[in-house]
Amino acid sequence: MKISLVPVSRIRKTPINPRQVVDRERFEALVTSIRQVGVTQPLVLWWNGGQGLYEVLDGSRRLEAARLLGLSEVPAIIYEVSAEEAMKIAFSIHLSQEDLTPEELLNYIDLMVQREVFRSVEEACRHFGISRSWFYELERAGRVREEGLSVSVRSVVAGSDLPEDDKRRILELARENALSSREVRRLIDLCGSLGLDEALVRIVAARPRLIYSDPLTREEVYECVGSTAFRLRLVEGYAELEVEGSGRLRIPRLDVPVVTNLLRFAESGRGARRQS
Predict the structure, then answer these.
(1) Residues 121-139 as b or e (16 or more Cβ within 10 Å = b)
(2) What is the mean pLDDT of the chain?
(3) pTM of the model
(4) Is there a domain that residue 78 lies in?
(5) For 170-215, how does the pLDDT look when each residue is reduced to its tens digit (9 = 90+)?
(6) What is the CATH number of the domain that holds 66?
(7) What's the domain count of the chain?
(8) Element (H, E) at 232
(9) Which residue range(s) make up the domain with 82?
(10) Distance of CA 256 to the CA centre of its chain
(11) What's the DSSP call for residue 49?
(12) Among 103, 172, 186, 243, which residue has the least CB neighbours within 10 Å?
């Protein structure tokens, strides 16, 4: 594969890199190595045409070290693919390197499902050759609580670019409102435009609530009431989504994760869709 020299000024870190935890001691050793012999291992970059910049799929620490040392360019392998394919490439690289923490692995698979790169956790596990039982063992382990927060929630907050005071506030809100890692990620996305308090109100309001259940017919009805009201009716074989003022949509029950994603995104003013 072709290796190119890319100006450091045209490269940025990316939110679709699965690695969030940085070992400072290893980073200092990396800086020393690059100072002595240069960047010997190419970065893996994704060309984000919409932004006109390269984003790092693998090599964020090498990029940070190069900037610290004042290097003007670095060697890189470049992928010009869709955002969905870039996410798959990034995850495959780090999965093969075995350098992801359990929390990073869980969060990234969850993020790929949320962004509809895959329709379900099971589909993502099949694609990457991950045992579904192993994934759920990690998930159960990730529910171990420390100060009332799951490790996956703490990992999402720690990996954000927010000021430390905002991170502490978000952790407090997550603990008080029992927010999931997905809800915390949405809170971080929305807080810049809405403020933390208003963003929290929208996220809590967007939670689907079970309002009816029939054990005989296995029918369940969930409701989500915010600026727009949604009602999701589940029966065997299909699901029916009713949106206030917009009619009804009937879909196969296998597509329920997509509808659930729509409910989670409802309060942000945009529906669930592929993101590029």
Answers:
(1) beebbeebebeeeebeebb
(2) 76
(3) 0.48
(4) yes
(5) 888 888 888 877 788 888 988 888 888 888 888 887 776 777 777 7
(6) 3.90.1530.10
(7) 4
(8) strand 229-235
(9) 4-99
(10) 19
(11) T
(12) 172
Q: How far is it, in rounded angstroms, from Cα 216 to Cα 84? A: 41
Q: Are residues 169 and 138 in the same domain?
A: no
In terms of DSSP bridges, do strands 11-12 and 53-58 run parallel, antiparallel, or are they unpaired?
A: parallel
Q: Is residue 225 part of a domain?
A: yes
With both helix axes pointing from N to C terminus, report the angle between 24-37 and 60-68 in degrees, rounded to the nearest 10: 60
Q: What per-residue confidence (pLDDT) applies to 39?
A: 92
Confidence bin at 81 (pLDDT 50/70/90) = very high
Token reading at 223: 């409701």
> Does 148 fall in a domain?
no
Using DSSP's 3-state secondary structure scheme, residue 119 falls into: coil
**Is 71:39 a contact under the CB 8 Å cutoff?**
yes
Q: Which residues contact 122 (CB under 8 A, 6 or more apart)?
A: 132
- Paired tokens of 244: 């206030």
Q: Does a structural domain hold residue 159?
A: yes
**What CA–CA distance (Å, rounded) separates 263 from 208?**
7
Instruction: Read off the tokens for 75.
Output: 């060697």
d(CA 176, CA 61): 34
Beta strands in 80-227 (DSSP E): 145-146, 149-150, 209-214, 219-225
pLDDT value for 43: 93
pLDDT value, residue 261: 58
Q: Are residues 222 and 255 in the same domain?
A: yes
